[in-house]
């Protein structure tokens, strides 16, 4: 048991060392960003830092509300701790979101959440978050007149909206799902030359876990609102970095060598979309290039746009990742599992009680 705890603690540390060595050519942006900070507007940098962590806190509230809908109560401190830790995994590794999802799943299971509830949280929170991201991008396209495939954005928006509605509906209509499963699964089994009732009861039992999930319209609206705040605070961090570098807060009207609010929104959206393909940790190199190119297109000089990208990534990527790893090593690494359900967190005193609905 003690050996397992040491492996849990040292394993991620060794991986981090290997990644730093492997991607050392991508790391000079840290030094460049710090040099840019020396001449940046302190108030703008402070707002960027605060907005970054408020963004993560808003996502933690989404987790807390969705888990609460399934009867698993979690304190804000614990949800925020897991969000910070999982964010550090997501931004530190190539393909990091997959590792982040595993950590999130393990910890949520240790809190008493069912497998279905954990998967339901992951799908619904991702769909709603993507929906808001695309809406922000569509706003930038329409108001800035940028040359971006608006049809692609609208198709993504429609897909995420439909997915959000389907998951919300499924949580409130498990009986309908059972009837459809009993009618359709035997048909698929016959097509696969299997017994008609193969796996039927197992699927039905899983579906009935939705009986424990009660997502009212009010709670869904709250989840959507916090998810929107997560995106807006993150976009505010980029906006504040523009202010910090140029000394002027972007407005609605363009001025020489300055961008607008919509220019910042478009740069934020394109950067997030580029960051989804994490070939390097946190999209190092790719995200910065996209931010710079978009801000230059939106009216900024290349020098200022480069400074904005460096400072934004220093705050939203480097600082948030460092804090997340500190939280991980303090509250997750080396902890023994309970009932093989992963590490626990001791930021709050949780009891897995059903929420009032």
Automatic annotation (TrEMBL):
Coiled-coil-forming residues are none
Q: Which GO terms describe its cellular component?
A: plasma membrane
Domain of life according to the entry: Bacteria
List the InterPro entries: L-PG_synthase/AglD
Topology in the lipid bilayer is annotated as:
Multi-pass membrane protein
Where found in the cell?
Cell membrane
Which residue ranges traverse the bilayer? 6-23, 44-67, 87-105, 117-144, 150-171, 282-303, 309-331
Q: Name one Pfam family in it.
A: LPG_synthase_TM
The record, for PANTHER family, names: UPF0104 MEMBRANE PROTEIN MJ1595
Name of this chain's protein:
UPF0104 family protein
């Amino acid at each position: 048991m003690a050996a397992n705890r040491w492996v849990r603690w040292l394993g991620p540390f060794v991986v981090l060392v290997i990644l730093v060595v492997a991607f050392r050519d991508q790391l000079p942006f840290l030094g460049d960003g710090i040099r840019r900070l020396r001449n940046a507007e302190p108030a703008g940098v402070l707002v960027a830092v605060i907005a970054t962590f408020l963004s993560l806190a808003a996502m933690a509230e989404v987790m807390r509300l969705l888990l609460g809908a399934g009867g698993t109560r979690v304190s804000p401190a614990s949800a925020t701790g897991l969000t910070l830790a999982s964010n550090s995994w997501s931004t530190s590794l190539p393909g990091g979101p997959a590792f982040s999802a595993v950590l999130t799943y393990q910890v949520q299971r240790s809190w008493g959440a069912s497998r279905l509830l954990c998967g339901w949280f992951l799908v619904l929170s991702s769909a709603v978050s993507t929906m808001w991201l695309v809406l922000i991008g569509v706003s930038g396209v329409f108001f800035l007149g940028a040359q971006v495939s608006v049809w692609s954005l609208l198709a993504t928006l429609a897909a995420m909206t439909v997915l959000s509605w389907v998951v919300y509906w499924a949580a409130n209509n498990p009986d309908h799902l059972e009837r459809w499963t009993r009618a359709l699964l035997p048909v698929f089994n016959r097509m696969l030359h299997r017994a008609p009732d193969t796996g039927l009861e197992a699927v039905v039992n899983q579906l009935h876990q939705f009986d424990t999930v009660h997502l009212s319209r009010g709670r869904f609206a709250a989840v959507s609102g916090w998810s929107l705040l997560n995106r807006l605070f993150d976009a505010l961090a980029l906006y504040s970095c523009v202010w910090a570098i140029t000394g002027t807060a972007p407005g609605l009207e363009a001025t020489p060598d300055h961008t607008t609010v919509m220019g910042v929104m478009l740069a934020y959206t394109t950067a997030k979309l580029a960051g989804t393909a994490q070939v390097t940790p946190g999209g190092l190199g790719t995200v910065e290039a996209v931010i710079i190119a978009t801000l230059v297109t939106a009216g900024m000089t290349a020098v200022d746009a480069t400074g904005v990208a460096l400072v934004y990534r220093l705050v939203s990527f480097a600082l948030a990742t460092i804090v997340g790893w500190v939280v991980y090593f303090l509250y997750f690494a080396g902890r023994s599992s309970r009932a093989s359900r992963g590490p626990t967190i001791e930021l709050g005193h949780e009891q897995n009680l059903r929420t009032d609905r």
